[in-house]
Amino acid sequence: MTVDNAKTNDDAINIIVKELPGIYENGKHFHIRCMAHIINLVVKMGLKHEVYHVKNLQDAVKYIRASPQRIKTFKQAMKDAAVESQRFLCGETPTRWNSTFELLRSAYDVKDAFLEYSHQDPMFQKTVGRVPSHSDFEMIKKMMEFLEKFKKKTEKVSCSTKPIFHTYTRGILDIEQHLRKHETNPDFMFMVPDMKDKYDKY
Q1: Which of 68, 106, 140, 195 is an S-S bond match for 90, by CB 3.0 to 4.6 Å?
Q2: Nearest to 60 by CA among 137, 138, 147, 152
Q3: What is the pLDDT averaged over residues 4-18?
């Protein structure tokens, strides 16, 4: 059976386990969690911690995407700044952490347009506080590199055209190693402990 992490499903599994004839170490390994869902929970736990540079960029993107006129002005700013990327700023979906990753990546690809946009929209800086700067995008790049591992694992285990269960153990241990690698990194040590706690829970 494949189920999500709803409490009622946990209760149902516990009832089934009680009826098992002592197999799977008395049910200890009977209920295997959805790896994609675990990754989603782990990353969302980390992203609950507000990162100054990320928050600044999120506010800027939200402001620009809030009206057709601002979107049009930003597209013109991309041309004026000679931005080569054909991508445009992505919005966020609160329930999916990878939408935050896409927001960061799309904004990073057009980073040179933000300063140009601020020249064309005098309310931009007054509303968002400050224009996303070079230092912001340096941190955004590091954040994208940190999140890339989780994104690739999610895409791999979400494949529906071939069996992937045999990669489960290696994949989940790879995530643990990735978290251990960054738990002493000054840029991420404030968020990794909570991510590890969520990882260990499942």
Answers
A1: 106
A2: 137
A3: 82
Q: Give the predicted TM-score (pTM) of the model.
A: 0.78
Ranges of H-type helices in 85-161: 97-109, 112-120, 123-128, 134-157
Give the C-alpha separation, 27 to 155, whole Å: 29
Instruction: Tell me the per-residue pLDDT of 109-130, one tens digit each, with 9 for 90 and over.
Output: 999 999 999 999 999 999 988 8
Domain residue extents for the chain: 1-32, 34-201
Asked if residue 191 lies in contact with residue 199, where contact means CB atoms within 8 angstroms, the answer is: no
Angle between helix 35-47 and 168-182 (nearest 10): 10
* Tokens (6 digits) for 20: 């098992």
Segment 67-75 long-range contacts (CB within 8 Å, at least 24 positions apart): 70/121, 73/117, 73/120, 73/121, 74/113, 74/117
What sign results for the dihedral spanned by CA atoms 113, 116, 119, 125?
positive
Amino acid at position 11, single letter = D
Residue linked to tokens 């952490």: 97
Q: Which residues have a Cβ under 8 Å from the Cβ of 158 and sit 6 or more positions away?
A: 36
Alpha carbon distance 139, 187 (integer Å): 8
What element of type H or E holds 23? helix 23-27
Query: Which residues face 96 on adjacent strands?
Result: 93
